[in-house]
Each structure stands twice: as structure tokens, then as C-alpha cells.
Specification:
The chain is α/β, with parallel strands linked by helices and 420 residues long. The protein has 2 domains: 208 residues, Rossmann fold, CATH 3.40.50; 150 residues, Glycogen Phosphorylase B (Rossmann fold). It is 45% helix and 12% strand. The strands form 2 sheets. It has a 7-stranded parallel beta sheet, sandwiched between helices. Strands 9-8-10-11-12 form a 5-stranded parallel beta sheet, with helices on both faces. α4 links the parallel β1 and β2. The longest helix has 21 residues.
Amino acid sequence: MSGVVAGLRQGLLRTVAGVRRAVPAPVNRALDALVRALPEPLVLALNPGQLRYSRADIPVPPPAPSTPMRLYVAPANFAGQGFRWARAAERLPGVGAVSMAFQRPEDFRFPVDDAVPVAVYATSPSWQRRQRAYVDGFSHVVIEAGRPLFGSRSDAFDEALALRARGTRVALLFHGSDIRLPSRHVDATPWSPFADWDLAPRLEEGATRNAAGVARVRAQAPEVPVLASTPDLLLDVPDATWLPVVVVPEAWRSDVPPLARAVPVVVHAPSNPVVKGSDLIAPALERLHAEGVVEYRRIAGVPAAQMPALYRDADVVLDQFRIGNYGVAACEAMAAGRLVVSHVTAQVRDHVRASSGKDLPVVEATPDTIEAVLRDVVAQRDHYVGVAQQGPGFVADLHDGATSARVLAPFLGVEPHLAG
């Protein structure tokens, strides 16, 4: 019997995939509606192995807040930011928030209010139907990364328009490669990873599709705000608003001063080595390590919960050398009082200064200059200790959630100055 089911499953998947490629979008939406109407046991039987789940895997969402403003942030939670923005919004009076994200087995386990297994998110008709009813209980929804709220067969921008038509306030939020155009980025910095990366065409297609979705939503609902997690994305969505990433400074704080050891410890923990430029800086770091100028530690596969201890044991943290921005990892290292060295474009630094009145305390370096910069750090420790000491205050002022709450306040109908 199992062989029959497997044969039916594979045949159905091949047929559906072929049909989806051959028919226009309205027909695909009709097919998706048909799949959502299938009985759950049939879906469970027909799912491919990587999307198998049991009824016990379907989570019960947390209760919707009882506050006047009820915010839902979903479904990406990259680097735990959906969860952190939800907590930031709750600094505002009368706001309660819930974050949701679908998770793959291999994902880092960042905190989130409602973790949904990817198989359930992608294919469970009962979860998708219940999810639609659940989201109706919220007054405000932030849709992340152009990803649908109601499962992979849906469309995030159609969802945004449907929610708006029902009276729900909606915002669109982007994190990075979901809206960053590789064709634009290659002209912004000579270190762009997109010039020769085989994933660039796929990323271009996805970002172009999301940009078209934003345009479609704004054409029909111009009041829908667009938010971007880093200033460099404002080049791709010029009318977006910067929503700073959020970290918890207390979780990273250290009383150990940097650069006190004879041989400084330099840490690089790339989440994506291609994007971070790890291969471009490796020869210089290996030379410095071999000479005994620094102790270089390249870290991989460390769970998020162990990162604070890893950063506290470092003197210098190398962030990224290709994209030209700064994000969660740099903020965490600054909060720990470490010296952060990275490539950050003038556009990003200027926007930070114009928005906050503060200079970004990240030492500039490129793959061409990283060796000279680190030799200078070792030679002029007092100067660079002063730069590192600015980090915790910068993060506390701009990235502890209060600034992000003020950015979200107009969308939520709250006065920004009321952010706690």
C-alpha cells in the first residue's frame, strides 16, 4: 500500500508542477484553493518526504492580544527581528504584538512567539484556514520579506490588499536580499557578491518580483507603509522608512575591556560566507595569525544562544566586507563593547548620521585594506579602544527597541514620544 501511495504522490507532484508552469496566475490561484479544500489526511498522504508532518505538528497559536492595537509580525523573523520588533512595539501604550515564523529543521532557533514547521506552513489546509481566521483578530499586520502569511500557495501582496480591504492596517517590511537588486548593488560597491555569484539571477528575480508587488500594493493602497531593516535598502525602495534592527543590550554587555591582551583575538562568525566576504579576507587574516599579530578565530555553526559568550571573549569582531551595510551581528558586537571592523558604505553612514545625529562606531575596512587596518589596531590600541567604547551607547540609543517603536508608532496610531 505504501508503494501505491508513494507512486500517487510522485505522480501528483509532477503533474501539479507541470500544470503550474504552464498556466497563468489566476488558474494557479484556483488550483491553490482546490488544494486548500482537500481533506487533511489526503494532504498528509500525498506530501513529499521533506514536507511531511503529523497532526501533532500543527501548532496552536498564542492568544491574540486584548489591547486596543493588536500587531501581527510575520512570517520571516530573520535573525529574530520579527520577535524583537514585536517587543519594541509593545513599548507603546495600548499595543500588544505577536510574531510568527515558519521554521525549517536546520534553522537557527531565534525566539519567536509562534513557530510553525515549514511543512505545516507550506501544505496544511487546516492550518492555513485557521491562520486566516486568526489574523482577522489583529488590527495591524506587518508582512515580512514578501512572504505570504497563509502558506506558500498564497501571495503576500494579494494578502496585503485583502487585509487592507477588510479594514486591517498593513505594512510591508523588507530585510535585505528580499528587495535588494543585485543589478543595482554591483554598481554601489566594488566588493558586491553579485557580480559573479551563481545565485544572483535568482535573487534578482525575487527582488524584482517583490518590487513589483510593492508597486501593485501602493498603487491600490498608497497609505500602506514600506519599512526596511537597513539603510542601504533605501536605494532599492526610496520611499521606504528605516526600521532599525533591535538587540537586547543587556544580553551582550561585558565588563572585560577590549584589546588588553598581548595578542588580540579577532573573531569572524559569518552567517553567509559569500555575502560576508569571508573568502576575500581569509588570506590576510591567516597571515596575521601566522605572524602572531592576532589570534584569528573563524566561527561556524554556533547556536544563537552561545554568541554572547563568543563575542565577549573577542577583542575585534569582523562583520562583513561585500554588502556595505551593518545589521544585527554588528550591533550585537558593539553592544558587547568589542571593536567592530567592517565595510560600510558612505550612504549608510550618512543616513545613520542624518537620522540619529551619531556616527556609526564601526571601523572601515575592505578586503584590500583589512590587513593594514588590523595592524594599525594593534599599533594604536588606545585610539581603537575609544572607538569600541562608543559601541554600547550607540546601540542603546538606536537599536534597543525604543527608536524602532517610535518608527512604528505612526503606523500603529500612537504618538512616537510615548515609546517607553
